[in-house]
Design brief:
It contains 10 helices and 2 strands. By secondary structure, the protein is mainly alpha-helical. Helix 1 packs parallel to helix 8. The chain has a single domain, classed as Growth Hormone, Chain: A. It has a two-stranded antiparallel sheet.
Amino acid sequence: MENNYHEVIVHYLMAIVGGFFGGYAIFTRMNVFGSAQTANLIDLVRDILGSNYIESMIRIGALLIYISAMIIATILTYRTKWKLQYLVLYLELACIIVLGIIPESVNPIIALYPCFFVTAFQWCVFKGALGYTSSTIFSTNNLKQTILSITEYFLIEDPQIKQGKLKKGCFFGGTLFCFHSGVALAYILHIFFAFNAIWFLSILIFINLAYFIYHDKYQNNYIFQHIKKMI
């Protein structure tokens, strides 16, 4: 139960970060979504067929960076014993610094190269919780799973299955809420600080890092566990 509770907290915290990255990219870099490749690949086909080869190369660069992040994350998962959850946060702090110093005049796709890398890396490391596969960097499947689960809850008669569907719907719904809370935060900060809004994301990263360290330090501490039981 404790591990499940921790998994959900981590998942939701990272969903807020993912929402902030996505919102910041769209609000500050000409509506370019820096956390996925669907729009990039569609535009890539258009640019190739339209003989816009310079733009095509820029978009291919974004695709290769996204792919490389997934490959690196997978290799590190299988070939090392590193705590990749921490590495994700360190990479995101580095990304914030780079995004914060890239001028507005830079091509928005190129400007978001760091974002493409770290969000893909985050996606591979933070894959979900409670046995559910759930993205923390975009929300389409989370929306689908929320709607399907809640709909099934009202259609199914078996009480045990109903509870399972409700639990699933609440989990994915919570992910949606946290992701779009990050988006909302990015928008509000963008209104007041424009491109400099990215620096505020570092606060969220440090909060997540503090929680990770706190949990890892005290999860096996007998005194801490005893106090929790008393409470």
